[in-house]
Amino acid sequence: QVQLVESGGGLVQAGGSLRLSCAASGRTSTLFTMGWFRQAPGKEREFVGALSWIDKSTYFGDSVKGRFTMSGDSAKNTVYLQMGSLKPEDTAVYYCAADRDRYVEVTELAYDYWGQGTQVTVSS
């Protein structure tokens, strides 16, 4: 089993930055991809970004490209989502997810483990 714990959410003004962390514990050697998703009230869960532990390559959803980055510290089994130029529409609960598949996926059904989520609120 794998446990994921997110941290770093909070309230930030539009145009500001925030960094989320996701720490994995348990059978982390089985994980190949770490992803971030978000869900705003009344909306479906949306792919934000993913990082492959194989080569540290990253992928992002269109709505955050150029504003968000991801990085990972394999020694700490932790990934980070650096969010910049934040907009009110970025307000959502952000979820960390982990996948045992070697191929990076952008659909939530592909991910095997999920964190509890952390709230990000961007004020205008």
Q: N-to-C SSE series? A: EEEEEEEEEEE
Largest sheet: 7 strands, mixed
Helix content range: under 10%
The backbone outline, from C-alpha atoms, is globular
Distance between the termini: 40 Å
Number of helices: 0
Tell me the fraction of residues in β-strands, as a range. over 45%
Tag the structure with descriptive keywords:
seven-stranded mixed sheet, four-stranded antiparallel sheet, mainly beta, 11 strands, 124 residues
How is this structure best summarized?
The chain has 124 residues and is an all-beta fold. The chain has strands at 2-7, 10-13, 18-26, 33-39, 46-52, 58-60, 68-73, 78-83, 92-99, 113-114, 118-123.
How is this structure best described in words?
- With about 120 residues, the chain is mainly beta.
- The chain has no helices and eleven strands.
- Strands 2, 4, 5, 6, 9, 10 and 11 form a seven-stranded mixed β-sheet that branches.
- It is globular and about 40 Å long.
Secondary structure blueprint with pairings:
Blueprint: E1 2-7, E2 10-13, E3 18-26, E4 33-39, E5 46-52, E6 58-60, E7 68-73, E8 78-83, E9 92-99, E10 113-114, E11 118-123
Parallel strand pairs: 2-11
Antiparallel strand pairs: 1-3, 3-8, 4-5, 4-9, 5-6, 7-8, 9-10, 9-11
